[in-house]
Amino acid sequence: MPAQLGWTNCALKYPRPQAAPVSKAGADTYLSLQWHLENTGPLPGFPSMKAGEDLRVKPVWNAGLRGEGIRVAVLDDGLEVTHEDLWPNVVTGSRNYRTEAGMLGLSASSGGKIAGLHDFPMPCSNDDTHGTSVAGLIAARDGNGTGVSGVAPRAQLVGLNILASNFVADTLDALSRDLNRNHVYNNSWGPTDNGHLATPEPDWSSYNDTLRNGLKTGRNGLGAIYVFSGGNGAIQTDYSSLDGGVSAMGIVNVCATNAMGKRAPYSERGANLTVCAPSADATDDQQPEVTTTSVRNDYTHTFNGTSASAPMVSGVIALMLQANPKLTWRDVPLILARTARKVDEQDGGWRDYRSPLGNAQGLYDVLHYSHHYGFGVANADAAVRLARNWKSVGGSDTLKTCGPYTTTVNASIPETGIVTQQGADQTARSTKDNSQARTYFGALYQLSNTLDYQMAPANGLRSAVEIPAECDIRHIEHVDVKVTVTAADGQGTHPNTGDLQMALQSPLGTVSTLMLPHACTDLNTAAFGAPELLVERCGGLSNFTFGVRRHLEEPVASSNSRNWELVTADRVQGGEGQLKDWSITFYGR
């Protein structure tokens, strides 16, 4: 019997890796339950399923593409590299960031003593299932007579267990590890879904420098592909655009749809979303969750969240890169956006923009955008077809940058279109019973479900930046908007930035909602029974950067205007402030 490896405070023990397990042949045991790969309609016990609401991956497999030669790094809590359905695709290059207890705050990347083997990023307890489930959705082995299949079932896997460390230095190390070997970096993690503005740690500069180095030097200059989950906090009124880490340039930010082709209720909206992928509804027991790998050589049928959607898109990207290995980090989101499926057409809040492709015979000329769905649900078949003959737009070296263009405003933000009275304070308040906090949260939740995200707030403060003529970007790929608001006297911080609705409007009239009125929340897990939802004041907004994907392929200027407007309104009565200044930066070609 091989020696069992374990380390301090870890319940799970694993045999030291020996020869690969004996591989079987045959159909994967649970393939018929993997509706996200092929949804043929209701499954036993799950009547609420709409046939065709899937990734359209089967035609790609039938064409002979299964991700061979493409390497995906899974940044998560662990990866059970000995799992029978993952082992065949695991390659050298995994990294264990878990350090021994009592290492005086030393991270693995700064000299901390590793707990276990350096290249053995195994789960520590039965609760550390997340990364292993994520990996199975990307590249569980197909046709081996057991388990499940990944979207790209022959892609290569490495595990980087940064969530076992929680050191920022280890996260930055993982995002830049093996840049010439790893093609895709899957990140099914993010900040707490509590509505507060989330600035990347340790700071904007270090985080962006790490990402931009990966975009510039990864894959021998073609650029690493960074995929992130869009967030699971919509039920608490959280909004993906409030998370700076998943909104940075170059990130493929992923939302979730259910088996009926509707937004999963937890999936955060945003102007930063790229595409959605299927996942569990999580509020409707008539719909299935997601089947994938789990720890202890096992499987789960209850995986969910945008954590499940992101690895599906990573798998689709692996198929695209196999079809065309020369795709750059800029090409990949352009292809995903042009080929994504439009869903929920009646209530999805879609706006279309026509941007012809010269060599696609009109098939992918129209882009559709919704703050609920990004450009739509990822379509592996169409994405691979377009990828095969895609004319690259280039990598980092040919990316044009205009800005930042800054304007100082120092004007009061009007209270207008009031939806509720102030219900948040410096001290967190319970939403139980008939409290003002409950009324406040309920009004903001209702607004999040009824707001027209494609419209700027009526009667809001309008501030314009005129873009100079020397900025000749005709196809926007990313926009950064940096904003500062203050208290009513122009000093300090706004009393509650959750009161604000803020939108960016382009010369074409296209609107990106950067912020919506929302609650900042906490959970009192010590409460008797179910956790108690608390509301509190949202923090300040100072030099926060909103990353925007929504204006993809638009020109910086129209035929009669070069003005970009920021429109801001205070929709909650009580607690006023000023817009101090803002700036805008464009990236594209």
Automatic annotation (TrEMBL):
Pfam family, one: Peptidase_S8
GO cellular component: cytoplasm; endomembrane system; membrane
Residue numbers annotated as active site: 76, 130, 307
Protein name: Convertase P-domain protein
Lineage of the organism: Bacteria, Pseudomonadati, Pseudomonadota, Betaproteobacteria, Burkholderiales
Matching PROSITE patterns: P_HOMO_B, SUBTILASE, SUBTILASE_ASP, SUBTILASE_HIS, SUBTILASE_SER
Domain P/Homo B: 435-589
GO molecular function, one term: serine-type endopeptidase activity
Record's keyword terms, sorted: Calcium, Hydrolase, Protease, Serine protease, Signal
Key word Signal present: yes
